[in-house]
Design brief:
Blueprint lengths: L11 H31 L1 H7 L5 H34 L2 H21 L5 H8 L2 H13 L5 H18 L9 H23 L5 H19 L7 H25 L5 H8 L1 H14 L5 H24 L16
Helix pairs in contact: 1-10, 1-11, 1-12, 2-10, 2-12, 3-4, 3-9, 3-10, 4-8, 4-9, 5-8, 5-12, 5-13, 6-7, 6-8, 7-13, 11-13
């Protein structure tokens, strides 16, 4: 019997639908945020090509400084001072290693741009999630399905095709080596983030940018840059890296990891297109062929993971692309 003054109870179907709406809205918001992060990260090579400063280490330093400023401000706004400090303290050795991986990847990205094309770097980087699966099996004996092994083999073959450009002088072997170092660094960070779930991406990347900035400060001979370059460096650090990470960290918690990985593939898709449209930088034929093999392997693998998900998984970071 209904108590006086209270509205009648809602039908079960209506109340269930109302309960689902917030979750659906959160997932849509997560999709938008992760896509926007991939979009911002895809602009990195285009922004870098505008910077005229010849000293790569000066570029690494100023990009790191702007990224640190943004990430610290973001963490203080989101978590407050006390919570932010506790997040840094709670990272431990795994967080330090993840930060070292990010520092290596972000530094190698800047230096590699002087030796190879943006397409070479980004398309090779697209294989990082599958390289992570291989490293997870080697280091922790994480199970790897037959389809994942096939995808890993395809990625390795695609990278070999891309690297073969450096054998006949088409592309600098230094550039290819740095691009491969980026992919491996991101793969190691992915494995550790998945293995040690308490490692938070934002403080780890912030510490990584601090490491990169300190290293660059010891290597550069001249910190001076033009006003125009400083404007691009602000966009490169605060917006491309910092804001991109903030959007990703906020959105990846709201959607399944496989979906976040799928949305992250927009970075290697769009990155070479922006550079080609804005700067006229065309990838070589072998880069296109090898990159297509890598990209197809990643997409097919993600599609099979979607099909294999028999039960819902809670949102998290696993095999996700990370900022360079």
């Amino acid at each position: 019997m209904k108590e006086p003054g209270l509205p009648p109870p809602l039908p079960t179907s209506v109340s269930a639908a109302m309960a689902e709406r917030p979750a659906a809205r959160e997932e849509r918001l997560g999709v938008i945020l992760v896509f926007l992060s991939a979009l911002l990260w895809s602009l990195g090579g285009t922004i870098a090509r505008f910077i005229e400063t010849p000293d790569h280490w000066a570029v690494v330093f100023w990009r790191s400084m702007w990224a640190i400023a943004f990430l610290v401000a973001f963490m203080l706004w989101r978590d407050g001072l006390r919570r932010s400090l506790s997040l840094f303290r709670g990272m431990g050795v795994p967080g330090f290693v993840v930060a070292l991986c990010f520092a290596t990847a972000s530094t190698a990205f800047i230096v590699a741009l002087g030796y190879t094309t943006v397409a070479n770097i980004l398309l090779m980087q697209a294989g990082a999630p599958l390289i992570a699966a291989l490293l997870g099996w080697l280091a922790f004996r994480e199970p790897v399905s037959r389809t994942t092994w096939l995808a890993i083999a395809a990625v390795i073959f695609g990278i070999v095709v891309m690297v073969s450009d450096s054998l006949d002088g088409g592309i600098s072997p230094i550039g290819d080596g740095l691009a491969l170092m980026i992919a491996i660094s991101l793969a190691v960070a992915t494995v550790l983030t998945r293995r040690y779930a308490h490692v938070r991406m934002t403080p780890a990347v912030c510490l990584g940018t601090i490491m990169a900035g300190l290293l660059a400060a010891t290597q550069t001979v001249n910190f001076a840059v033009t006003g125009a370059d400083m404007g691009f460096l602000f966009a490169f650090g605060a917006i491309n890296l910092g804001l991109g990470l903030a959007l990703f960290a906020s959105g990846a918690r709201l959607i399944p990891a496989a979906l976040a990985a799928l949305l992250g593939t927009f970075e290697p898709i769009l990155g070479p297109i922006w550079v080609w449209l804005v700067h006229g930088e065309e990838p070589s034929e072998r880069t296109v062929i090898g990159g297509a093999i890598v990209f197809a392997a990643v997409l097919v693998h993600i599609a099979l993971e979607f099909r294999r998900r028999a039960r819902p998984r809670k949102p998290g970071v696993s095999g996700l692309p990370t900022p360079h």
